[in-house]
Amino acid sequence: MRIGIDCDGVLRDFIPDVVDLIKEKHPEHADKILVPKSWDWEDWLPFWSEDETEKFVFEDNYEKLFGPEANIIPSVLEDWPILKAWAIKNGHELVLVSAQREHCKELTTEWLQRWGIVFDEMHYTKEKWSVDVDVLIDDSPEKLDIFNERSVAYGRPICMKTTWNEESQKKYMTIERLSDLVGRVFG
Fold first, then answer.
1. Do 75 and 31 fall within a single domain?
2. Host domain of residue 35
3. Are 30 and 51 within one domain?
4. Is the same domain home to 77 and 119?
5. Are residues 135 and 180 in the same domain?
6. Which of 32, 51, 66 is the last residue of a domain?
């Protein structure tokens, strides 16, 4: 089985890193940050326009947010070796399927190397449905829905539980951490 795994929100602790960086660089906004309930920046960062947030994240601070020093989701440190060993033992392939912007791809690869996260294959694409995987673990409601509708392999979406994908949790199998794959999904 080919298991597709997203990066941000599944491996890399992207949203908390964004929040922490805003608090550090713009403390005047610290008490205005809301709990993310969607991928729409303006829904949870109401003090900035989408363009201002995009500039903060993808122009001014992308090296810190996507590079080797970005934080990993804590459970991934424990779960990745377990998942990797299980995949090898059972003949599964772990495939990165991540929609990184062009200038963030190399940084993401460096980040994965820093944390010892090695995939059998890596795909950087916004069209995740076009990658031949049997399942896709993702946190983005939009990406999960499109993968469900268009997957070239008729793959199955698996939702990584977050505050911004509560509707997806009702529609798709949902996991709280990567090790859930071993026992719950493929048990």
1. no
2. 14-66
3. yes
4. yes
5. yes
6. 66
E runs forming strands in the chain: 2-5, 93-98, 121-124, 135-138, 156-160, 173-175
Over pLDDT 70: what percentage of the chain?
A: 98
Least Cα distance to 11 among 106, 105, 87, 79 occurs for 79
Q: Encode burial over 140-177: b for 16+ CB neighbours within 10 A, e otherwise.
A: bbebbbbbbeebebebebbbbebebbeebbeebebbeb
**Strand, helix or coil for residue 5:** strand
Q: Are residues 98 and 110 in the same domain?
A: yes
What is the reported pLDDT for 185? Answer: 65
At a CB cut-off of 8 Å and minimum separation 6, what does 70 contact?
A: 12, 13, 14, 17, 64, 111
Residues 95 and 153 in one domain: yes
67 exposure class (CB count in 10 Å sphere: 0-12, 13-18, 19+): middle
Q: Which helix (H) or strand (E) holds 30?
A: none
One domain for residues 125 and 152: yes
The total number of structural domains in the chain stands at 2
CA distance 53 to 131: 29
User: How buried is 89 (Cβ within 10 angstroms: 0-12 exposed, 13-18 middle, 19+ buried)?
Assistant: exposed
Chain segment 84-138, per-residue pLDDT in tens: 999 999 999 999 999 999 999 999 999 999 999 999 999 999 999 999 999 999 9
